[in-house]
Amino acid sequence: MRLEQLEYFLASAEHGSFSAAAASLLMAQPSMSEQIRRLEAELGVPLFIRAGKGVELTDAGRLFLPHAERVLAEAQEALESVREVRTLVSGTVAFGFFGGAHHSLLTGLIARFRAKYPDVRVRAIGQNSAEVADAVREAQLEAGLVILPIEDRGLEVRPVLSEELFYMTADPERARVPMTIERLAEAPLILYDARWAAQDPTRVQLSERGQVAGVRVEPLIEVEYMTAAFDLAARGLGDTVGLPSMLRARKLHQVAFDPPLFETYAFITRRNALLSPSTRAFMELAEKALG
């Protein structure tokens, strides 16, 4: 049974004539009649009886009619839903971001995307990178922008940008020379991402450096957000690690790490997953914003 056969059946039932139905669909009447015959053969019952110059539905035809209408309507809905997403007429972007994205990237990106695609809904989840990776892996999100390193099991990872991280302090004396991991282990540290401490990408890098050097890096104070760590450091309650672009008006001295420490951003998707056009368009704008 094919969808066009259902269309021919419904047209014949509506017009009461194979020839009139064929004319309405701009096709030859013999072709129409042949497709109806094949449909009846497949069903094993006649759907029409000849009545004068026209046709009428049999009992089986009347029973079959609402089902045929429903199947064609659902097929049309399916086609429309795909067309809308494909052409970015509607749909939803489900995208994850590393926790600090809302400070520097997220608001402007969503504003630009909505201006370009006003009928596409946006669901942007700002979490720790490890949590975003889990959500993408489990298909709760289509894609995400994270900070490396992450657990990449089942994921495609595409790095797009690196920014250098600096040691930041209110005490100019502690910012005179590049910061080594040995000196960092003795510093009064304030670190962010308290809830995801063991999986926070920056802490993972510091921990790996500490293991190689035979020292342990442990914070004196832990908070959830980088901006809170900056505020506490500006009050002289300790020192922190962060990006100069996030400092704004906070009066902190900064010094590079030795060797330099970088924050690397990457797009992640499920391995071999087919992204929706909306999400692909959102990622393209995000990459331009990062550049």
Written overview of the protein:
The protein has helices at residues 3-15, 18-24, 29-43, 59-86, 101-104, 106-116, 129-137, 181-184, 201-213, 226-234, 277-290; strands at residues 48-51, 54-57, 92-98, 121-127, 143-148, 155-169, 190-191, 221-222, 240-242, 253-270. With 291 residues, it is of the alpha/beta class. Helix 1 packs across helix 3 (29-43). The two termini are 53 Å apart. The model has no long low-confidence stretch (mean pLDDT 90). One of its GO terms (molecular function) is DNA-binding transcription factor activity.
Observed structural traits:
291 residues; alpha/beta; Arc Repressor Mutant, subunit A; D-Maltodextrin-Binding Protein, domain 2; 3 domains; six-stranded mixed sheet; two-stranded antiparallel ribbon; 44% helix; 23% strand; rod-shaped
SSE map:
Blueprint: H1 3-15, H2 18-24, H3 29-43, E1 48-51, E2 54-57, H4 59-86, E3 92-98, H5 101-104, H6 106-116, E4 121-127, H7 129-137, E5 143-148, E6 155-169, H8 181-184, E7 190-191, H9 201-213, E8 221-222, H10 226-234, E9 240-242, E10 253-270, H11 277-290
Parallel strand pairs: 3-4, 3-5, 7-8
Antiparallel strand pairs: 1-2, 5-10, 6-9, 6-10
